[in-house]
Amino acid sequence: MESVLKFIVIVPAAGVGKRMQANCPKQYLCINNETILSHTVTRLLSHPLIKQVIIALGDDDQYFAESQLAHHKDIIPVNGGIERVNSVLNGLKAVDEKKYPWVLVHDAARPCVSLEDIDKLINQCLTNDQGGILATPVRDTMKRSISSKDNVKGDSSSIESTIEREQLWHALTPQLYKTGELTFAIEQALVKGLKITDEASAIEHANLPSLLVSASSENIKITHPNDLALAEFYLNKQANN
Q1: 108-130: per-residue pLDDT in tens?
Q2: Domains held by the chain: number
């Protein structure tokens, strides 16, 4: 690892997390009396090679200014966008490419990412001189549903087929790319009206290579109410290790 190289992380945090069914954006829900966003950013800044975190905030965010994060010298708030990709692009525009030739992007609702996995991602990307993402292999049998639910009642669908899982991976974050390449890939994808679900998908549309770096399954994204308890379990487990 090139210890002189410094890294910056963009954390898109402009979403509201409707599936959490909470009365505030999910990143401001608390685990052990600390917000999810605070857990996530604190974990990132505890990595010795991560020097700054850019947080993309929603226009109606009423919580960040009242948090301790707002006064942290290594945190840079920027305006978020309509979609995640817009928030990431706004964050990229605040990055000094000469100082930070590589940029990480990490979900605000992934507080359990390990420093060891971040190390692995950085090492693999620098060794291969190409960007990549943390990911976990799919373990369960995967099913594709039929497109129409007209003949099904309730919260269910019907199976169309079984998908071969041997080459399927769950995409996680952080995702690490060269700052200039990621900016170019996102801008071009937006111009073309392409669907961008994560940074890797923008890179794929630009026909640039990406690594899949195997990571811990503890790096969950808090999406549904029952994810809070699991994240709390992992955070407590990691704190006691």
Answers
A1: 999 999 999 999 999 999 999 99
A2: 1
